[in-house]
Amino acid sequence: MSRPVAIVTGSSAGIGAATALRFAEGGFNVVVNYSRDPKPAEEVAAACKKAGAEVEIVKADISDDASCRALAATVEKRWGAARALVNNAGTTKFVAQRDLDGLTADDFLKIYSVNVVGAYQMSRAFAPLLRKEKGGAIVNVSSIAAVMGRGSSIAYMASKGALNTLTMALARALGPDIRVNGVGPGMIESDWLKNGYGAEAYEAMGKHYRNNSALEATIAPRDVAETIYALATAFPKTTGETVLVDAGFRLQKA
């Protein structure tokens, strides 16, 4: 392999798309993963190819273990090994925190099946391929919601807290060959949040975030992608950590 390989789940938009492109620009071949509409994934793949990468576009539902193993088999057949896995795919249900009747057990199970179980299944499926390359790394995309207890829903917050614990557990289980770290983004500039909360609420949230964060800024997908890339390619003695990318919102402005 002349170029290492990075797999980014949920990479047809947002953080995932920015991350796939960042790896392509960094000299990696890339797997672009989507679960529904192939057109955005094809656009991301075209940008990655323009940056010099070979690209495999794969439709896969990471909550299904067979799909995770099939994705790993596809990568092994084409390239033989992998250097980085980014567990970015995630889901939520937008429910006000005080509305306890707005979430059902099925809602929790659906959210956990992607945000936690999916990350575990992908890590298990790709561990053998990551061990074939020196410097193999996994990066899990968590959220500031995990440490602040505020977010799109209680189920989402809880799932990201579980993902942070999974990051530590996998770091122990997969070391010393594979490092496992996470990123916890703050408020992302995205259509996903805008559509989920509604345009008016989204704008109000952004203003509140900028007014109260130490760096007076919200977070662009590329900001998170840069941190993911750094965790995967540098910091050889760092594992089991989840790094906040929140412009200092947790600190609050003095």
Index terms:
seven-stranded parallel sheet, 7 strands, Rossmann fold, 50% helix, alpha/beta, 254 residues, 9 helices
Descriptive report:
The protein has 254 residues and is an alpha/beta fold. The chain has a single domain (5-245), classed as NAD(P)-binding Rossmann-like Domain (Rossmann fold). It is 50% helix and 14% strand. The protein has nine helices and seven strands. Strands 3-2-1-4-5-6-7 form a seven-stranded parallel β-sheet, sandwiched between helices. α1 (14-25) runs parallel beside α2. It is globular and about 50 Å long. The N and C termini lie far apart (50 Å). The model has no long low-confidence stretch (mean pLDDT 96).
In short:
With 254 residues, this protein is of the alpha/beta class. It is built from 9 helices and 7 strands; from the N terminus they run βαβαβαβαβααβαααβ.
- CATH names the topology as Rossmann fold
What's the gyration radius in Å?
17 Å
How many structural units, i.e. domains? 1
CATH class: Alpha Beta
Kindly state the number of beta strands: 7
Query: Which percent range describes the beta-strand content?
Result: 5-15%
- Strand order of the main beta sheet, please? 3-2-1-4-5-6-7
Largest sheet: 7 strands, parallel
User: What would you call the structural class?
Assistant: alpha/beta
List the secondary-structure elements in sequence, H or E. EHEHEHEHEHHEHHHE
Unreliable residue stretches: none
Mean of all residue-level pLDDT scores: 96
From the N-terminal CA to the C-terminal CA, the straight-line distance is 50 Å
Give helix % range: 40-55%
Contiguous helical run count = 9
Name of the CATH superfamily = NAD(P)-binding Rossmann-like Domain
CATH architecture descriptor name: 3-Layer(aba) Sandwich
Global geometry: globular
